[in-house]
Design brief:
Elements: E1 2-3, E2 8-9, E3 30-31, E4 33-37, E5 42-45, E6 57-60, E7 71-73, E8 82-92, E9 95-106, E10 122-127, E11 130-135, E12 178-179, E13 183-188, E14 191-196, E15 201-205, E16 212-216, E17 223-227, E18 235-241, E19 245-251, E20 260-265, E21 270-275, E22 281-285, E23 292-296, E24 302-303, E25 307-327, E26 331-355, E27 366-370, E28 376-382, H1 388-393, E29 397-409, E30 414-425, E31 436-439, H2 441-444, E32 455-458, E33 461-467, E34 470-476, H3 494-507, H4 522-527, H5 529-541, H6 545-563, E35 574-577, E36 582-585, H7 599-616, H8 619-636, E37 651-652, E38 657-658, E39 671-672, H9 675-692, H10 695-716, H11 726-729, E40 737-739, E41 742-745, H12 753-758, H13 775-791, H14 800-810, H15 812-818, H16 821-825, H17 833-846, E42 848-849, E43 854-855, E44 862-867, E45 873-879, E46 885-890, E47 896-901, E48 905-910
Parallel strand pairs: 5-9, 7-30, 11-35
Antiparallel strand pairs: 1-9, 2-3, 4-6, 7-8, 8-9, 10-11, 12-13, 13-14, 14-17, 15-16, 16-41, 17-22, 18-19, 19-20, 20-21, 21-28, 22-27, 23-24, 23-25, 25-26, 26-27, 26-28, 29-30, 30-34, 31-33, 32-33, 35-36, 37-38, 39-40, 40-41, 42-44, 43-46, 44-45, 45-48, 46-47
Helix pairs in contact: 3-5, 3-17, 5-6, 5-7, 6-7, 7-8, 7-9, 9-10, 13-14, 14-15, 14-17, 15-17
């Protein structure tokens, strides 16, 4: 054991520093190893998968987990009794760790810890003046308990709303798609499907007279991975997961033997497999849609016999059916074809045997493998034979744990995100080659990362190979506020504004059963809180205290109704599920309970409203803050490995966005419809963090907001014009629904282009200005909006509030001229009238976003910076605290400006002469 205890201070940089590339932390960060746990020699039961990092924990000077920096050399054949040595190494700053660990695999019965007991009684929990229910509540609907997961992983809150969580609710994940970029994976009775999703094709439909389309890959599998020791009704069990990966064991019914274990890692070119019996693995090449098969050595020599011996094999699926020629309105023409190549990398002198597995034309589509006394192999898709050497030399580094962490640089107002993989070099010499991974467009666009020339194309665009176990991205945070200060332009009428607020009070009557405020569904109910919250801010800004207090009373009543349990007749309350570590509602609309769906959206509306109310009614935090904390931490919990709540539930750390569905039980994987409602969820959490001075929550909310925004610009609106293929972008500039393996020009509720675009632009608040931060983005947004208008023959037909808000980002004078209160009052959401009038006039008064100026990220202040038509730069600042605060701004030439911001205020401040 060699551990050198040297604490060092190092400056932040993009250049990797340690084995496989370890990004260097900021200048005030002490780099030293703290404690080392779980690396003792041990015995392990035969036939149970051996996870090299199970129960291993390395901490740093700050007692933070840095296990993901570990490198492991060696392999344990868990199916064969014997002694195996693993070497664990880490370089962290100037500290070095090197521990040789002996694993003794012994015969014996596999024993698993018991599954935690289920709650049997119903419990009402008081939280300040509020309360909620937990335990056993038969009066409301619930999700199934997490299952098909190792019992020791149930000791902490269980994740949901991820790309792989179908595995937690159905055996074999119900056969649903697991999309890893670049692969589609699934479990079927034929084995584990692996398909390279490819670039896909565009198909058109015309429901109800509207033109819709989808860009997706044809659902024809490429191959299936299996073991001869498994029956077709095998069970899948999640044995490990991380921020970017999941490891799945395949077992026979009523057995704990891990016959095959597959590791899926976001961005990895490989799917890694381990087996208990080295003579059992086989691949079945799909018969449908393939002309024939060809086999090659890793060196590219054609194999004509029925067997091959070596360290790998290349399989060519000749003329694989990958799509169709299509045209509007709904024509499907001739099929299209492309060759698919797969590289199988194995131990030296492995034997491959080719046979017919029931192919309808008698072709040899079964590859049986004998792994020469080892138990591992990997599969990778390659573009051509010439790429095999590169991918083969990197194939023996298996990712173990993916960690995605972030740091908010307050002074420079940006978010540094670090993607780090611990990995295992399976054979001698493998560690000489770095780990490789495919980066997605949102990782590499605008970065200075050094990438290779190896690429693959999917419906997510061009993925590029990066060599290294770690990399960093930097995204700016240009600020966001809940609403704008009072517009100071002549076109704004305070009396008109007052009338619209008065109208809002008539449309938010607590006794009106037809109002969304009284809708039993939590989504619709929470959505109606947004205009109330906006109305409070507006009334305060124009000095209408009577209206403000009336709206405060209504908002407080509605939040209190949800945030407290009033007994058996109560139909509105919150429930905490201890099995998942999640919070949902007594009403199951949109399956927020039974499928844990839409928590970011729905919770986000509630948290946004609670944050605004806390500014104008400080007693609210003391009375109901504990319940709000529970709700916000359900989707925005900043701590990993926690018992009570999952880390950032619903957020895909690799993809940089929210997933809406709790279980991802769809053939196309998980999905997300409204990016803007996801952004509003992050905004709500950010505002609550400011109101409660919670720095960890604030940083997590900023991290989520900037990544969600970057994702939306990259994939939902294709700002760089590199994602949508021409058959798609010819007709649309938005993806209405984003899936694991496709995107739709559609919504869940209709094909009207106003819905497809508009669902990305609601609710209409100041945060929408983040879509138009500079001239490039304004030009791109103008093209997007013009494309929408073109699809509607230049006529907005509904959702006027949302569309005029986008128009105001481009041309506020035009938006003011189009504004017609009657159209909004007769629309789906008439309560949006006041906030729409206020927003478009605010954009007219304060102008466009200015990102040449910036504000240091503050503990309790929020700000956005604008520049009006006269060149005046305005900082719009929200201070929800009870004390004056000093805000520090950066000028374009690097100077700083400070302004004192009064307590409990929303004001504008000039930053230039």
């Amino acid at each position: 054991l060699l551990i050198t205890w040297l604490g060092t201070l190092v400056a932040c940089q993009q250049t990797p520093d340690g084995p496989g590339g370890v990004p260097v932390p900021p200048v005030d960060r002490i780099l030293s190893i703290g404690t080392v746990e779980g690396l003792e020699d041990t015995t392990h039961t035969q036939f149970e998968y051996f996870n090299p990092l199970k129960d291993v924990r390395i901490t740093d000077y700050y007692d933070e987990d840095i296990t993901h920096h570990l490198h492991v050399a060696g392999n344990v054949h868990y199916g064969k009794p014997g002694s195996y040595e693993l070497l664990y190494t880490m370089t962290y700053g100037e500290d070095q760790l090197s521990i040789a660990r002996e694993i003794e695999v012994v015969e014996g019965a596999i024993i698993k810890p018991p599954v935690p007991e289920q709650p049997s009684t119903r419990e009402v929990v008081d939280a300040g003046a509020g309360s909620y229910v937990r335990g056993a509540d038969s009066t409301i609907e619930h999700p199934v308990n997490p299952q098909h997961i190792e019992p020791h992983l149930l000791s902490r809150a269980v994740p949901s709303n991820q790309w792989w969580t179908a595995l937690l609710v159905q055996n074999q994940g119900g056969g649903n798609g697991l999309y890893t970029n670049p692969y589609r994976a699934a479990f079927t009775n034929l084995g584990a499907e692996l398909t390279h999703s490819g670039s896909g094709f565009v198909q058109y439909w015309n429901p109800e007279g509207y033109n819709t389309m989808a860009h997706f890959s044809l659902a024809l599998p490429d191959l299936f991975i299996n073991s001869t020791d498994l029956v077709s009704s095998y069970r899948t069990t999640v044995v490990d997961y991380s921020d970017t990966s999941v490891t799945v064991a395949m077992r026979n019914p009523q057995s704990l033997v891990d016959h095959m274990v597959l590791t899926y890692v976001q961005g990895s070119p490989y799917v890694h497999a381990a087996v208990a019996n080295e003579t059992s693995p086989n691949l079945t090449l799909a018969a449908n849609g393939v002309s024939h098969y060809e086999f090659y050595s890793v060196g590219g020599t054609r194999i004509t016999g029925t067997s091959h011996t070596g360290a790998g094999l290349i399989v060519r699926l000749v003329q694989k059916h990958v799509g169709y020629e299509t045209s509007r309105p709904a024509q499907v023409g001739q099929p299209t074809y492309a060759d698919r190549y797969f590289l199988i990398s194995t131990p030296e002198d492995s034997t491959f045997t080719f046979s017919n597995a029931g192919h309808p034309f008698g072709l040899n589509n079964r590859i049986s493998m004998q792994l020469n006394n080892e138990n591992y192999f990997s599969i990778a898709s390659i573009n051509a034979l010439s790429e095999a050497a590169f991918y083969h030399q990197h194939a023996y580094n298996r990712p173990l744990k993916g960690d995605v962490s972030y740091r908010v640089d307050a002074e420079n107002s940006h978010v540094v995100t670090t993607y780090q993989n611990s990995y295992q070099s399976l054979k001698p010499g493998a560690a000489e080659q770095p780990l490789i991974q495919f980066l997605m467009p949102h990782h590499y666009q605008g970065s200075d990362l050094t990438l290779t020339n190896y690429t693959t194309r999917t419906v997510r665009g061009l993925l590029k190979v990066y060599q290294g176990a770690a990399f960093q991205t930097v995204l700016p945070f240009h600020g966001v506020i809940p609403a704008m200060p009072k517009p100071n332009d002549a076109a704004f009428s305070a009396s008109t504004m007052r009338d619209y607020l008065q109208d809002l009070t008539t449309r938010t009557d607590l006794n009106d059963p037809m109002n969304f405020l009284n809708d039993p569904g939590p989504y619709w109910n929470s959505k109606a809180l947004y205009p109330l919250s906006q109305g409070i801010i507006i009334a305060d800004q124009i000095g209408e205290d009577t209206l403000k207090h009336e709206l405060i009373g209504r908002l407080r009543f509605l939040l209190r109704d949800w945030f407290s349990y009033a007994g058996q007749t109560d139909t509105r309350y919150l429930f905490y599920n201890q099995n998942w570590g999640t919070v949902y509602y007594s009403n199951n609309d949109f399956r927020t309970a039974t499928e844990l769906s839409d928590h970011t959206f729905t919770h986000g509306y509630f948290v946004y409203a609670a944050s605004v109310l806390a500014m104008y009614d400080p007693s609210f935090i003391n009375e109901y803050g504990d319940v709000v904390e529970m709700m916000v931490r359900d989707y925005l919990h900043p701590e990993k490995q926690d018992d009570a709540f999952a880390y950032l539930r619903g957020f895909d750390a690799w993809g940089g966005h929210t997933w809406a569905h709790g279980f991802s039980t769809f053939a196309e994987g998980n999905n997300l419809e409204s990016t803007s409602e996801a952004l509003n969820g992050w905004l709500g959490g950010y505002l609550w963090a400011l109101a409660t001075d919670d720095q960890a929550l604030k940083d997590a909310a900023i991290y989520g907001f900037v990544h969600e925004l970057h994702h939306a610009k990259t994939y939902r609106f294709d700002y760089e014009q590199t994602i949508f293929p021409e058959p798609y972008s010819r007709y649309a500039q938005v993806a209405g629904i984003y899936w694991g393996g496709k995107y739709d020009y559609a919504t869940w509720f209709g094909a009207n282009p106003t819905f497809i675009y508009g669902i990305q632009w609601l609710p209409n608040g100041e945060y929408l200005s983040s879509y138009a931060l500079d001239d490039f983005e304004r030009a791109r947004l103008n093209t997007i909006y013009s494309t929408y208008l073109g699809a509607k023959n230049q006529v907005v037909d509904t959702w006027f509030a949302n569309m005029w808000s986008i128009q105001a980002l481009l041309d506020p004078a035009r938006a003011i001229s189009l504004f017609d209160a009657n159209k909004i009052l007769q629309d789906d959401y008439p309560s949006d009238l006041a906030q729409t009038y206020y927003l478009i006039h605010g954009l007219h008064a304060f102008g466009q976003r200015n990102i040449e100026y910036g504000m240091h990220v503050h503990d309790v202040l929020a700000a956005s910076i604008y520049q009006d038509d006269n060149g005046h730069v305005h900082a719009l600042v929200w201070n929800p605290s009870a004390h004056p605060q000093v805000a520090t701004f950066r000028t374009p030439d690097g100077q700083t400006i400070q302004r004192t911001i009064p307590a409990a205020s929303l004001n504008s401040y000039r930053l230039n002469d």
